[in-house]
Each structure stands twice: as structure tokens, then as C-alpha cells.
Design goal:
Shape: globular
Helix content: 40-55%
Strand content: 15-25%
Order of helices and strands: HEHHHEHHEHEHEHEHHE
Bound molecules: zinc ion
Number of strands: 7
Radius of gyration: 18 Å
Distance between the termini: 27 Å
Strand order of the largest sheet: 1-2-3-4-5-6-7
Number of helices: 11
Structural class: alpha/beta
Largest sheet: 7 strands, parallel
């Protein structure tokens, strides 16, 4: 039997519910605009630290060029369109403004503009992204203009799973829940089944990003985690 081609899979309508915007863009679009090439990512076996190092050395310098942020967002919508995505849940980091000097109003304007001009047919749910390495106080301060805009529909938590326990972010997730936002978090990307279970329970998650650790631990299953995931059923995206 002939295997379907990549073009066939691209032609099928699909949802992309785990997208980090500037990390999800078509690299050719960014490289053509900036005239610079990004070295391909290579894992050195250090988990999220390898990815963070690649972002700092390869992606961030291009995004910080004049017009680079706008082109990065445009590239993300172009990639989604190219992949046949019809529903896009895509996060933008709330600390980006402080890191790159881009105010929240401009970030929201760029997202709106790119959605309308590049892919108006895609159902887009803007998401606020929170790095787990920052204190709750600093994150709430950075996120205030994002929350007050009323533009965002979901939140996500990512970066080093070891940095802080889910309990440190309970207040943030309660706030998002009170505003009717979808509550997502990375858990089990590199952590254990128990860490996924803890995140689901403490943060009252609607969806788990990655969550692969939920299946990888015999101890976790023996302790009841598998039954827990089967019966508590947040969405889990084992990427
Ligand atoms: Zn992710």
C-alpha cells in the first residue's frame, strides 16, 4: 500500500494546540528577511537547557533586529497556514516585553495584524506564555497589560520543570480560571508521571503540553497515575 505523502497530510484540516509562536515560524521566512542563517538545533542531552541555549544564540538575535519580531510572528502564521492548521492555540511569552523592549500593546497589535493579513481563515486562540523560572510576582506584573487587554484566551507554563513546583503558580492559574481562560501547562516533558499528576491537580489544568512522562514511569502507574489520567482526562499532547 502506498504511503500518503507529506503534501496529503498538510492538506488535511487540523488543530495546532501547542505552538510557541516565534519558535514555530518558517525559518526560511525569517532567514530571508534578516539575511542571516540560523544553525540547526542539536540536542546535547541537556533537555530544555539545550533549547534555551539555541534560542539565545540563534533565534533571539534575529528577532531583535528591526522588524524581526513582526517577521517572526508572520512566519508562525505562514507555517500554520502551510501545514493546513485550521485552529491555532499559540503562546507569546509575557516576559518578551522586558527582554526585548516590545510593549504589550505592540505585541497584541502584531498578533492581530498577522492573523488578519496572513491567515484570517484560521481560528486563532491567543495564549499567554509563562516561564517557570521567574517569580510569580514578576510574572503577574509582566502579564498585567496582557490580562487587561482581554485579548488572550489561554495560558501556558513552560521552561525548566525543576525550577519551581506547580504550587508556586496556583494564584496565576486561579486568576486565569476566574477569567474563563483555558489553563495549560508543560508537564512531563522531562519530568515524571507524578510531576504531571501534581501539575494537573494543583493548577486544575484543562490541557497538558507534552505529558509524555505520564506514560514513562512504571512507578507512576503502580502508584495510580495511569488510572488518574484515564479518569481525570485533561487533554494530553505527547509531543
Ligand atoms: Zn512547548
Amino acid at each position: 500500500m502506498e504511503r500518503p505523502t507529506l503534501a496529503y497530510y498538510r492538506s488535511l484540516p487540523k488543530g495546532d494546540l501547542h505552538n510557541h509562536c516565534l519558535l514555530g515560524g518558517r525559518r526560511s521566512v525569517i532567514e530571508k528577511f534578516t539575511g542571516r542563517r540560523m544553525a540547526p538545533f542539536r540536542s546535547g542531552g541537556c533537555g530544555i537547557a539545550d533549547l534555551n541555549a539555541w534560542i539565545v544564540s540563534e533565534l533571539r538575535p534575529l528577532i531583535q533586529l528591526p522588524g524581526g519580531f513582526e517577521k517572526g510572528v508572520e512566519a508562525a502564521f505562514l507555517q500554520a497556514l502551510h501545514d493546513g492548521v485550521t485552529r491555532l492555540e499559540m503562546s507569546i511569552d509575557v516576559t518578551l516585553g522586558a527582554l526585548s523592549g516590545i510593549p504589550a500593546t505592540r505585541i497584541i497589535g502584531v498578533l492581530q495584524q498577522a492573523h488578519v493579513t496572513v491567515a484570517p481563515g484560521i481560528v486563532f486562540l491567543p495564549e499567554m506564555g509563562f516561564p517557570r523560572t521567574r517569580s510569580l510576582r514578576s510574572l503577574l506584573a509582566a502579564a498585567e497589560p496582557f490580562f487587561s487587554s482581554g485579548y488572550f484566551r489561554a495560558i501556558d507554563l513552560y521552561d525548566d520543570e525543576e525550577a519551581q513546583s506547580p504550587a508556586a503558580f496556583r494564584e496565576l492559574y486561579r486568576l486565569a480560571g476566574s477569567l474563563g481562560m483555558k489553563r495549560k501547562a508543560h508537564a512531563g516533558e522531562f519530568g515524571t508521571a507524578e510531576s504531571v499528576r501534581e501539575a494537573v491537580e494543583v493548577l486544575e489544568l484543562d490541557a497538558v503540553q507534552h505529558g509524555i512522562g505520564a506514560a514513562g514511569s512504571a512507578e507512576g502507574c503502580a502508584a495510580g497515575s495511569c488510572t488518574f489520567f484515564a479518569s481525570n482526562a485533561p487533554q494530553i499532547f505527547p509531543v
